[in-house]
Automatic annotation (TrEMBL):
Keywords: Amino-acid transport, Membrane, Transmembrane, Transmembrane helix, Transport. It comes from the Eukaryota. The keyword Transmembrane applies. Its main location: membrane. This is Amino acid transporter transmembrane domain-containing protein. It comes from Hibiscus sabdariffa. The keyword Transport applies.
Length: 300
């Protein structure tokens, strides 16, 4: 029998009151629905522009690679939800506190979640306005150009960095995974990770179906050479809130895979692939701001 401390009684009372943990009766399709709605959002509108910067080959490769990396790191989060027998990490910051310590875990996870939510709201407004304007200005263009948008080498490089940020932003749902999993029942015989993983597979298949046609079809009907990046909010905020590599870091710290094993290599590769967009994308966004600053017309 586990001895219930006053603190654990308090936490139990809080969890029984909070909506996400008061009734743990969610099914796998609940997660599939919530994950799709968390991911297929404003980021999908920026995929055509990302493809214009990256080109067909690199663009398709990066989209598929991002799909695989985010699916793998999501699996890690699902697995780590019940990595301590008899306990569950119902919120992302609880997992962070377990991995990095009580204070450091909060300072790492919570600001990123808040920044992600606030930045997403800003991006919805910016991308919504841009998209409405595009629909207003276009018809079908007879002279579609499939070449890179930039003419100079430096422009192509920085544009490539911007494209990385566009795709990275499109794959964003990890900050709510554990909160969704908290709504599911779990027993030692039937842990919650089973239905969660089933829902994740369905969600990612739906997401791929939504993303790929949008990134190819809109590119065919838009002439992109005159497009400007008003503030590059997506790229600049990624330096702080792009956290796809955090589950890999926690996995290495707490699961301790054997050094130089396949799992060890996969996690380090995912960490590197997560850090690269975090560094390169804001660089490309800053370059774009500098180049196109003379065209800015605030509140116009």
């Amino acid at each position: 029998m586990v001895y219930e401390t006053p603190e654990s009684d308090r936490e139990k009372a809080i969890n029984e009151w909070l909506p996400i943990t008061s009734n743990r009766d969610a099914k796998w399709w609940y997660f599939a629905f919530h994950n799709v709605t968390a991911m297929v959002r404003a980021g999908v509108l920026s995929l055509p522009y990302a493809m214009a910067h990256l080109g067909w080959g690199p663009g398709v490769t990066i989209m598929i690679l991002s799909w695989l990396v985010t699916l793998y790191t999501l699996w890690q989060m699902v697995e780590m939800d019940e990595m301590i027998p008899g306990e569950r990490f119902d919120r992302y910051h609880e997992l962070g506190q377990y991995a990095f310590g009580e204070k450091l875990g909060l300072s790492i996870i919570v600001p990123q979640q808040l920044t992600m939510d606030v930045s997403s709201d800003i991006v919805y407004m910016v991308m919504g306005g841009q998209s409405l304007k595009k629909f207003h200005d276009l018809g079908v263009q007879p002279d579609v150009d499939y070449s890179y948008k930039a003419a100079s080498t430096s422009g192509k490089v920085f544009g490539f960095f911007v494209g990385l940020g566009e795709i990275a932003f499109a794959y964003a749902s990890h900050h709510v995974v554990l909160e969704i999993q908290a709504t599911m029942p779990s027993t030692p015989e039937i842990p919650s990770k089973g239905p969660m993983w089933k829902g994740a597979i369905v969600a990612y298949i739906i997401m791929a179906i939504c993303y790929l046609p949008v990134a190819y079809r809109i590119l065919e009907i838009q002439k992109l050479r005159q497009r400007q990046h008003p503030l590059n909010i997506r790229e600049t905020h990624l330096a702080y809130c792009y956290s796809k590599h955090l589950p890999c870091i926690v996995w290495l710290i707490k699961c301790k895979p054997k050094r130089f094993s396949l799992t060890w290599f996969i996690n380090w590769i995912c960490i590197i692939l997560g850090v690269l967009p975090m560094v390169l994308s804001p660089t490309g966004g800053l370059s774009s701001i500098i180049v196109s600053a003379k065209y800015y017309r605030f509140f116009s």
